[in-house]
Amino acid sequence: MTWTRFAQRRGNIDIVIESPLIQQIVAKRLHYAILAVLEDRFGAVPPDLIEEIQSVDNDDQLIDMVRQAAACRDLDAFRAAMR
């Protein structure tokens, strides 16, 4: 189940709701987390990298980016991992 899917139990039926608004909110929070980790580790994040990060809206890809931000050796390695 992705971050943008929510299951609700109604009797014997599971209802799954996918919401573009929820997806946008989750993406924004993950962008913030990625940028916070990169800034804490490497200092100021270049504007072009900020834009590249903020252009991603797939939650699975964003989760991978959080992991990369925490593990990469430098910003160039992070950029390489994004591709």
Structure characterization notes:
It is a single chain. The protein is of the alpha+beta class and 83 residues long. It has one domain (19-82). The protein has four helices and two strands; from the N terminus they run ββαααα. It has helices spanning 20-42, 47-54, 59-71, 75-82, and strands spanning 5-10, 13-18. It has a two-stranded antiparallel sheet. The model is unreliable at 1-6 (pLDDT under 50).
Summarize the structure.
The chain is α+β, with helices and mostly antiparallel strands and 83 residues long. It has helices at 20-42, 47-54, 59-71, 75-82, and strands at 5-10, 13-18.
Sum up the structure in keywords:
single chain, two-stranded antiparallel sheet, 83 residues
Itemize the secondary structure elements and their pairings:
Layout: E1 5-10, E2 13-18, H1 20-42, H2 47-54, H3 59-71, H4 75-82
Antiparallel strand pairs: 1-2
Helix pairs in contact: 1-3
Tell me the count of domains: 1
Radius of gyration from the CA trace? Answer: 15 Å
Question: What's the total number of strands?
Answer: 2
Please give the count of helices: 4
Described by the principal axes of the CA atoms, the overall outline is elongated
